[in-house]
Each structure stands twice: as structure tokens, then as C-alpha cells.
Specification:
This protein is an all-alpha fold and 286 residues long. It has two domains: 230 residues, no CATH class; 53 residues. It is 73% helix and 2% strand. The protein has a two-stranded antiparallel ribbon with strand order 1-2. Strand 1 and strand 2 form a beta hairpin. Helix 2 packs across helix 4, helix 4 packs antiparallel against helix 8 and helix 6 packs antiparallel against helix 8.
């Protein structure tokens, strides 16, 4: 059983995860032409590489990835090479995930990029664990997907529509050319959705430590608690210790109260037993 579990974990870490992330790296830059239906690959812009780097730092802060355990002198050479390739695939998959939800050009790309940069920068100074970070990323990519592939697609549809007329009325006097974006076939949205879903699934399967059993909930939660404690400020650590000591004091007081009650009960039983013995011995003495 142990050998099977170890082999399955090795297959996930060394084969499945790189395959997932490399697939995301390919699909994240794939577009379908609106007129010809040709497949177009869009290389990730520089801003997506910056966003991917910030995201990896956030993974490390949240404890989702322990880079010191993935790349360590204690690991064999081939293991370090395999882990490095997996982390590289994760980096490019992250960059292409951002690329799939960023507009291709114009002011809208910079607006979306600023939104991502501001969100990730604020998260660098927030207290995160791996689970909360995963939920936050799913919501972030989901919102960006809706804005690009539903809102903007409807806004710049060739036939126009009520959304385009509404935007024209709101931005009267401002040309939509500054907000223009490239038009692609609706299949591009499906590809982007599949790439983002695959990316989130890869993050769910990604263990903080290679070879760790993701089913050991107790050890995982303990490690997350310790890492969260070390990320606290000195004042917050003092408050946490005071709260723990206060709970310990209440627990000890409760145990002492129970001990006193038990001792009182034993004394009462003993006195009652002695009284019965005295009562039973009086007729015999007479």
C-alpha cells in the first residue's frame, strides 16, 4: 500500500503536474481568428511574466510551495531537475493564465494589468494560507474571464448591440478606438476557460512539499498554523500567545474545579460510609 501511494505521488509530481502546466502554457496563448478560424499563438507580454513572478512569491508566503524543499541539497540530482522543470512549467502556466484573460492591446490591457498588479501587491502584505489563496485566485481569474470573454466580447461584437450603444452614450466624445481590442472567434473563450480550469486543478494537486501525502490533514493544518504564526507581527504574536495562555488557564481552572468536586464527592461518600458503619456497630455493642 505504501509503495503504491509513493508511486502515485511520484507520477503526479513528475508527470501529471508538468503535463497540466505545459498544456496551460500552450492553451493560454492560443486564439482563434474571427474571420479565417486560424489558430494564432500570442506570446506572453512582459507584464504577465512580472505577474507570474509575484504570484510565485505569494505561493511561497502562503505556504502553498516550499521552494527550499522542492530544490534542496538533500534531494538527488534527478529529483532536483524534475522539480525545477515542474516549477518552470508552473511559472509559464501562471504567465499564460494571465495572458488568456488580458486584452491583446490598447488601454484595456493596461487597465487589466494594473488591476492584477494592484491585487497581487496588496496580497503580498496580507495573511494568507494555501486554501484561501486558491479561493482568491479562482475568484480573480473568474472575474477577469467574465470581463474579457463576455463583457468585452459583447461590447466589441461586429453587429454591435445594446452594450455597445450604451458604452457609446456613456463615452460620448471619447473614441472607442483607445479602448479597442482584437476580435477573435467565440471558441477563444472556450479555450481560455479550459486553460484556467486546468490551471486551478493543477494548483489543487500541487503539494507544498514534493512527495508529501496530501491526505494528512493534521500535519498540513499544523504546518499552516506554524507558518501563519511566523508571518504575524510581534504585537500579533503576543496577542496570540496571550489568547492561548488564557485558554490554557481556563482549561486548568476547569480541571481543578472538577478535581475539587470529585474530591468533595469522595469525602461525602467516605463520611456516609463511616456513618453507616457506626450505626450498624451500635446495636452489636449493646
Amino acid at each position: 500500500m505504501t509503495d503504491t501511494r509513493t508511486r502515485n505521488r511520484a507520477l503526479v509530481n513528475d508527470l501529471l503536474l508538468p503535463t497540466i502546466f505545459l498544456t496551460v502554457a500552450l492553451l493560454g496563448g492560443l486564439r482563434v481568428g474571427a474571420l479565417t478560424g486560424a489558430l494564432v499563438f500570442v506570446a506572453p507580454p512582459l507584464v504577465t511574466l512580472i505577474l507570474a513572478s509575484m504570484l510565485l512569491v505569494l505561493f511561497a508566503r502562503a505556504g502553498a510551495i516550499e521552494f527550499g524543499r522542492w530544490l534542496s541539497n538533500e534531494n538527488p540530482l534527478l529529483a532536483n531537475i524534475s522539480h525545477a522543470l515542474t516549477l518552470a512549467a508552473l511559472f509559464f502556466a501562471s504567465a499564460q493564465s494571465f495572458n488568456s484573460v488580458l486584452p491583446e492591446a490598447g488601454l484595456l490591457r493596461w487597465m487589466f494589468s494594473f488591476f492584477f498588479l494592484w491585487t497581487l501587491l496588496n496580497n503580498q502584505f496580507s495573511s494568507f494560507d494555501a486554501r484561501r489563496l486558491l479561493h482568491s485566485l479562482a475568484a480573480l481569474f473568474g472575474l477577469a474571464f467574465l470581463l474579457k470573454h463576455m463583457f468585452l466580447t459583447s461590447l466589441y461584437a461586429p453587429g454591435g448591440g445594446w452594450l455597445r450603444r450604451l458604452a457609446g452614450a456613456m463615452l460620448e466624445g471619447i473614441t472607442l478606438g483607445t479602448l479597442d481590442t482584437a476580435a477573435f472567434a467565440p471558441a477563444t473563450g472556450y479555450i481560455s476557460f479550459f486553460a484556467l480550469a486546468l490551471y486551478v486543478c493543477g494548483l489543487v494537486l500541487l503539494p507544498p512539499v514534493p512527495g508529501a501525502d496530501t491526505g494528512t490533514e493534521g500535519a498540513t493544518r499544523t504546518g499552516e498554523f506554524i507558518r501563519a504564526y511566523h508571518r504575524l507581527s510581534p504585537e500579533e504574536r503576543a496577542e496570540a500567545r496571550a489568547e492561548i495562555l488564557d485558554e490554557r488557564r481556563i482549561s486548568l481552572e476547569g480541571e481543578a474545579s472538577k478535581s475539587r468536586q470529585l474530591e468533595h464527592y469522595e469525602n461525602a461518600v467516605l463520611e456516609e460510609s463511616e456513618g453507616e458503619q457506626k450505626t450498624s456497630s451500635q446495636p452489636r455493642s449493646q
